[in-house]
Each structure stands twice: as C-alpha cells, then as structure tokens.
Automatic annotation (TrEMBL):
Residues 127-146 have a biased composition (Acidic residues). Keywords: Metal-binding. Pfam families: DDE_Tnp_4. It comes from the Eukaryota. Residues 127-149 are annotated as: Disordered. It comes from Rhizophagus irregularis (strain DAOM 197198w). One of its GO terms (molecular function) is metal ion binding. Coiled coil: none annotated. This is DDE Tnp4 domain-containing protein. Its cofactor is a divalent metal cation. Residues 2-114 form the DDE Tnp4 domain. The keyword Metal-binding applies.
Length: 170
C-alpha cells in the first residue's frame, strides 16, 4: 500500500535534493511520524531521526548485518512499485508530453493499486521487475545542508547505531 506519494516533478530532479525536501511528508513529518517511529530509506536520502538509511561503506560485521536486515525490510517498498508497474503496464510505458496527464494517470494507478491491495487482489506478476536504476548517490554530502539538517543527520546516525545495537548485538 502507498500511504503517501509525490508526483509531478521532472525525472531529472534528484529525490533527496528537491522532491523529498519539498514533499508533503517532509514538511509535515511531525504530524505523520510519532515518537520513536521511523522510515527505512535508501542511501539517496539524508539520514535523520525519522528516516534511517543503511551505512555507506560498511566498516564492520555489525554494520554489514544491519544493512542486510535493513535491505530485507525496505525491499517491501520496491515490491510495491513492482506490483503496481506489473498491474498497470502503462506506468512502464508512459511517454506522454503533457505532465497533467501523466500526473492523473499515476495518481489513479496509485489509488486503484491501494484499492486492489485492500481487497486482496493477488494478481500474479506477469513481468519481471525492471532493473530500475534509481539514481542512488551513496555519498553523505553535507554541502548545502543547513544547521538543522546537520543536527537531524547526527541524531539519525545515533538512532541508526542504537537500532543496529538492538537488532544485531542484543
């Protein structure tokens, strides 16, 4: 199920830089994420207390194991995209020049996908998931990050360490 989505941005805009930081989710995170809740994100996103990403260039066995467990849980998101693309082939083949049409098609597909998931529509996937390149940038780039984002990054790194210790070294 998709609980939030952001559509309508050009494909050349990097998720972590523009779309993510201008999304409804990011602007309203305090209303959406409560207490110790958090999301698992890929390495393209900035780490914070509410978004835990894997370790980049894992240095020890605990970090490597944490990254494997993180990936096993985050793959659910990739599977949702794959199911949606396989369910609605047009999402793979969108080559429409009018952005409002693309937005409407995508939004309708998300709503219909959620409806089908809620009603246990288990359509067998007819096509293999694409080997999409998501433009991940595995560098922890602190350029153009304001002071608040640096604090959020440090707190996120601390929280990720705590999670790793809880999961791996219990």
């Amino acid at each position: 199920m998709f609980i939030d989505y952001e559509i309508g941005w050009p494909g050349s805009v990097h998720d972590a830089n523009k779309v993510y930081k201008n999304s409804y989710f990011y602007r309203n995170v305090s209303k959406i994420i409560k207490g110790e809740e958090y999301l698992l994100g890929d390495s393209a996103y900035p780490i914070s207390t509410f978004l835990i990403k894997p370790f980049v260039n894992s240095q020890n066995p605990s970090q490597i194991r944490f990254n494997v467990i993180h990936s096993l849980h985050r793959v659910v998101v990739e599977n949702a995209f794959g199911r949606s693309k396989n369910r609605f082939i047009a999402l793979k083949e969108l080559n429409v020049r009018v952005i409002s049409t693309v937005v409407k098609i995508t939004e309708c597909a998300i709503i219909l996908h959620n409806f089908l998931e809620l009603n246990n529509d288990n359509v067998e996937e007819l096509y293999e998931n694409d080997d999409d390149e998501d433009g991940d940038d595995d560098s922890d780039n602190d350029e153009d990050i304001n002071q608040n984002e640096i604090v959020m990054k440090r707190e996120g790194e601390r929280k990720r360490e705590q999670l790793m210790n809880l999961i791996i070294n219990h």
